[in-house]
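Regression test attached.
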Amino acid sequence: MADKGSDPLALWQQMIGEMEKGFNAFANKTMTSPEFSKVMNQAGGVTAGAQKQFGELIEKYLINMNLPSRAQMVGMAERLQTIEAQLNEIKAMLGRMSAEAGAPTGGLGGAPRPPRSKRPPAPQQQSPSGEQK
Amino acid sequence: MNAPAGLDLASMPERIQAEVQRAIQRGIKGVEYFSSSGPTLGSTPKDVLAARGTMNLYHYRPLADEVYRVPVLIVMATTNRGYILDMVPGQSFIEFLLKRGYDVYMLDWTAPRPEEKGLRMEDYVLDFIPDCIRRVQQDSGEQDVTVIGYCFGGVLSLLYGSIFNDGPMKNLICFTTPIDFHEMKLFANFSDRRYFDVDRLVDAVGNVPPEMILTSFEMLRPASRAASQIQLWENIWNDEYVKSYRMFDRWATDTLPLAGEYFRTITKDLMWDNKLFNGTMTVGGQKADITNIKVPILHAVAEHDHIVPYDAAKHLIPRVASSDKEEVMLKGGHVSLVAGANAVRRLWPKLDNWLAGRSI
């Protein structure tokens, strides 16, 4: 079998890894400069403003086309979420009532909850440490 | 002509055959990759105990016959989805905890809705977390609760623990939690107050879009996405590699927007004024100084964390007032510390060893 030094595939993978590290290091160095922050934030500010205006324009277009806008869809999703939340509240309330009545507690498919009596394993049975530096 | 040193010409036909096989497999699996949806994530059975706007509280169904007395509440980072801790069976931190006998709850987040742009830091620290703690107490019937915070979930847990320092939090575990935000040098430069007008941004967009959050994370390692896609193509014949790639890629790109006012506070109080590090942080007018924390605390940090470097995280353990405190540095990065094959061998057993005796 060829060793790693002469295996073209291993060399290719090594090259990709080195290029990644090198480019990341170079980019990180560039990105710590105040000039980078200035340019990035100027560009970001323009983009955010343009996106907002574009979104408003699209929304007007959809209304004119008699199609639901994103805001309307979000509104419907919110109503659904509210209904879901209320159902969950009712479910949790029923579970509590059921528990108070002595029935198996809710949320576990009718199964009783396990007792809260577990003790940690004896020290000699534990592995010394999970740390593997 | 002689072969280059180390090149075994006798094995070349086998190598070529293997590479041809892989090339064929790449073609077949490549089509499969684009036509399938990937593994189902976050499938450990759970019940939704509460859902209120961006806040979701889950209770995972026990997988042990007997559980520890003290329940565990995991507080997820507000930028990402909680299923990073519940990937697939065998690689799920939640499943691991359940099988080891913990009663597990999770405070997870959904995207804040447009009208939630006004959510402030105090809504998270003084309302959502205390509300979830109360619900955990009510559901479990126990007063004590162990809190585990991941990344910014750790910051929120620390702020909560600083203010509610007389209980009911019994133990606190933080994963990769920053204290000195000025040591997150690239983020600090991206948000340089001379050039980054956070007020203008928040006023313009409301909630900070997820694309912006994702871009800022990806800019920390700008070549890594392209490199990982090359590696994916090379390994696309390998089902396990592809499964793992899809899990992590889906999670990493499934970034959440951040509520505008909350983002404004993070930028001004933490990124600009470094108030958590300086001990001047307040939430809703209440002082939130981590030196007030007295409960047993474990802080797990990653040796190669490019998002929260060690210099940003190292101040937590020395500063808290707890007498029972430990920092553990493990191999791995910001995500591989908590999820994936390395976490199964490193962090999870360490956490279990630490927490078991403190959960009775």
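Expected vs. actual: identical. Residues 12-35 of chain B form the longest helix (24 residues).
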